[in-house]
Amino acid sequence: MKRPTIADIAQRAGVSKGAVSYALNGQPGVSEATRQRIMAIAREIGFNPNSAARALSGASAKAVGLTLCRPARILSIEPFFMGLISGFESELAARSYALTLQVVSTPENEVEVYRRWWGERRVDGVFVTDMRAGDVRIPVLQELQLPAVVIGGPGDTGRIAQIWSDDAGAVAEAVRYLVALGHRRIARVSGLPDLLHTQTRTRAFTEVCTSLGLESAVTVPSDSTGEEGGRATRRLLINADRPTAIVYDNDVMAVAGLAVAQEMGLAVPADLSIVAWDDSPLCSLVHPPLTALSRDIAEYGAHAARQLLAAIAGEKVTDVEAGTAHLTPRGSTAPPS
Amino acid sequence: MKRPTIADIAQRAGVSKGAVSYALNGQPGVSEATRQRIMAIAREIGFNPNSAARALSGASAKAVGLTLCRPARILSIEPFFMGLISGFESELAARSYALTLQVVSTPENEVEVYRRWWGERRVDGVFVTDMRAGDVRIPVLQELQLPAVVIGGPGDTGRIAQIWSDDAGAVAEAVRYLVALGHRRIARVSGLPDLLHTQTRTRAFTEVCTSLGLESAVTVPSDSTGEEGGRATRRLLINADRPTAIVYDNDVMAVAGLAVAQEMGLAVPADLSIVAWDDSPLCSLVHPPLTALSRDIAEYGAHAARQLLAAIAGEKVTDVEAGTAHLTPRGSTAPPS
DNA sequence: GGAATTTACTGAACCGGATAAGTTCCAGAC
DNA sequence: GTCTGGAACTTATCCGGTTCAGTAAATTCC
Question: How far is CA B109 from each of CA A261, B23, B89, B137, rounded to the nearest angstrom?
């Protein structure tokens, strides 16, 4: 089956290719009657503009890119990214933008992918996640002048717009809530320590715990996996002066922590309170359901997509703080016994 | 920054555009010396072929598509797809193919996306998941002659290749194991009943239970979500002659089922044995860790990607059964008390 | 040694759109 | 009645590759 082109439409309508192009793109240069006639023919024969041809003649590729820098094992269970992707799609699909995905193994690898995408003109812009301090990707994106939006910050991104949620405020809310319940020994199991948002959260956690004069407030670094989160929990709970509450940097680690507590014969929430970050369905799935710092990740993603599309359109895009997480108390938190 | 093109290379090397194209694509028509010189220059100036131009001049788009027909809420927690995507990527990245993702809401919508992708020449082929009986997508793909691989079957896909794992064998293995432990009342919580693989599993489950002469062997339909899986479990467990073991069609529902059992004061595995399908890290995360029907989903995806690339290359691709799931016993199964 | 073939290229057409630069044609102004 | 200006087109060029037809030089063959 042959793909219909504007030449086919032009022939049917008895006009030139140029006229068809003007008509379909809402450009001036054709009468309203002709435009309607052309559009009707296009619809009738199921015309879709060849994205390659369009991209080649200087217009946009109508695609944006996302690189995921995680091994398969971790990705498969990280609900955050799928939520984010769903959010992206809600905006992108409406404007007929495609999302191009690439799984990579290192940030250096990510840079290579950006360079390739740029050279291939494959994408009009990219989403950047998992920002690190002094991230190597930022200078490259600036050099290539590839539109981008950094998700998670705030950090030093130069002219590149970023969007983040108020992690410091959220962590403070969680700690204050636990303290109000009577907890005095609170621990936190964090994600990868070199990620920017981990650092933000760690700083905020330490600050708020100090200001509230807590007995102990350690942060144990982990890597966002359930496995490592469980190990970190075990290390915390074998101490004599074990914490009475633990805040986890994501839901997967929180679930693993819950399992470790059960395995060690500790009752949740009687002996240990648990707070999860990022409230995926996972949190309400387990027993007891986990108190979580919820935020609308899909909306977060949609917001980021709007930002990126604006940046691609050449509009001035400013940094925004969006979607502050707020505490959703469930069965995993209670006063310490 | 200007993107380097083959014209730039041609100028530097003092040859024509055509010669450069032949050299870079390993085509005959240039001497080995010239080829080396051209390749060196290309590497030096960081040349990447413009994918749009390449796609336009008849060559492939170097991209494949995947549509996901799930609401955001479900997708975010479904580890299966991320595992599959990781598997795709391992093959695609090696051959510089991009993966284009689109989240849609209905199968009809999926058909539209296929038509658009085809018209736009955006992808060279597509992965098809979640096959239903009499799936509307198959005739469209045949009509468009868009290379495709169906993941999950076997079904009636005409000339389109498919890949599936031996679900019937796996479900039999699980049931036989439970029966060997002494269970006589086994239930199953399934995924969406109109999906082909759900039907295959249901048929196999009923058959093996009948052949083993079990007291009761109901399948309760669900929709793969934890929420619905939990509800189905609750409905099963309130009966007087409740099952002593439940097999779930995915890991998320199994985890939800575990939570419901705990909530109802039933001990797992003493009062209820649980078997999960698809062994994501989730299964080893909870307490007790879940016995699961494991298969290597990433390898499954990689296999599918190899099939699709072969189909795109015009090779004859045959249906294959790959990666049979096998039982991985963990703490959630034991003889009934 | 001259014709035939092969090698190593060049030049130009082509893919399917976007778009700048004409070309008609007609209404309105003077 | 001529001139101007704009609407409604057409024509031609460009984007950056691929590929085919052509060509000159080198090599092979009898």
Answer: 45, 43, 25, 10
Q: What is the pLDDT of residue B158?
A: 83
Q: Does the pLDDT value for residue B76 go beyond 80?
A: no
Answer yes or no: do B287 and A103 touch at CB < 8 A. no
B91 closest CA partner among B305, B312, B297, B320: B305
User: Beta strand A326-328 with A291-294: parallel, antiparallel or unpaired?
Assistant: antiparallel
* Rounded mean pLDDT, A163-168: 91
- Evaluate if residue B26 carries a pLDDT over 90: no
| pLDDT for the residue B337 | 85
- Nearest-CB residue to B52 (from A1, A61, A284): A61
Judge if the upstream peptide bond of residue B221 is cis by omega within 30 degrees of 0: no
Strands B63-69 and A63-69: unpaired
- Which residues on adjacent β-strands are paired with residue A216? A185
Residue B252 in contact with partner chain A when CB distance is under 8 A: yes
Q: What is the mean pLDDT of residues B71-96?
A: 82
The answer to whether A61 contacts chain B (CB < 8 Å) is yes
Structure tokens at B196: 């082909």
CA angle B141, A21, B116 (to 5 degrees): 15
> What is the arithmetic mean of pLDDT over A217-223?
93
Neighbours of A102 (CB within 10 A): 23
Q: At what angle do helices B107-120 and B137-144 cross, to 10 degrees?
A: 10
A31 touches strand C (CB under 7 A): no
